[in-house]
Amino acid sequence: MPVISFAELSERVEAVLRKAGFDQLHAAALTRIVCAGERDGAKSHGIYRIDGIIRTLQAGKVVPDAQPVVADDGSAVIRVDAKGGFSPAAFEAGLPHLAERARKLGLAAMVLNDCVHFSALWPEVEALTEQGLAGLSMCPSYSTVAPAGGTRPLLGTNPIAFGWPRADGVPYVFDFATSVAARGEIELKRRAGETLPDGWALDAEGQPTTDPEAALGGAMLPFGAHKGSAISTMIELLAGVMIGDLTSQGALEALGTTTLAPRHGELVLAFSPERFAAGRSDPFAQAELLFAAILGQGARLPGQSRHRIRARSLAEGISLSDDELAGLDARLLA
Is the Iron-sulfur keyword given for this protein (predicted)? Predict the structure, then answer.
């Protein structure tokens, strides 16, 4: 497979997005997320997403030059109005305010409103760990997941991500959908002609299916049955209802399709471990004892493989298929 450097991939992706019509602010922010996915081996969140980005733009469902507006009233809640643009630029606009407020108060929240959500949340919580803060991020999606015991789409894939800073620079980070799998994973299996594992999805009649096409026309299932369903509902409440934005059902009704990126809101929480510990202990040292105990049993920490792949990608380059490279070139020549 062809190998391309991270810098060269970033340059190509940004050029594709600029040619498509995004201004420099959004093209650069989106490029950072897309290329991070490829760099870290998360193919379902890499250049595969470019088609959806451009399709959403061409449908008139995202503002390519929106200028995020940060509202900071000095309280623990920072608000960012994304003005209908993709979420990465809005997150980056509010991040310095969120980090400063979390260090000052111990806990702060950032509300992103009216944003078109894009891709993974782990880059966001990683950005908080780089500030020495713990972080929690969550957002709804659009209705593609049946609640536990249900048969029709109602909840979103509703991702949630958490990050904890570590002295060695490799934070403890998890990021997962509250559905059994991300919707992008099902689409990739459809493209590859593969079947789904049992327990991933229902068809349009509410019957279990392993056919990706039938699953995309039916409903995915929450992970952990009622447990995942409850967490997904919590995200609808906190990152939709509570922040005055759309739930997954409202986002689907507004958009009318699952082929474009959904427009709704997002909630990001930032914590200062030192402020919470209040001198009773060293929270970072205590965390390392916990991590060492986990590793001591032969288990691994989430994100470890991502960082190993990241280090290899930065040193040796990123492998892309001929078709993937040709797709980027075709976008530039179109």
Answer: no
Q: Is 117 a catalytic residue?
A: no
289, part of any domain: no
Provide the domain limits for residue 243: 3-179+222-278+315-333
CATH number, domain of 169, equals 3.30.1370.60
- Cα separation, 3 vs 156, in Å, equals 35
How many folded domains does the chain comprise? 1
SS (H, E, C) 168-202: CCCCEEEEECCECCCHHHHHHHHHHCCCCCCCCEE
User: Is 44 tagged catalytic?
Assistant: yes
- Give pLDDT, residue 323: 92
Identified catalytic residue from 185, 236, 266, 324: 185
Name the catalytic one among 44, 87, 141, 272: 44
Of the residues 45, 137, 143, 266, only one is catalytic, namely: 45
264: annotated active-site residue: no
Q: Which stretches in the chain have pLDDT values below 50? A: none
Question: What does the pLDDT look like over 114-169, one tens digit per residue?
Answer: 999 987 899 999 999 999 999 999 999 999 999 999 999 999 999 999 999 999 87
Report residue 115 CA to chain centroid gap. 13
Residue 59 burial by Cβ neighbours in a 10 Å radius (0-12, 13-18, 19+): middle
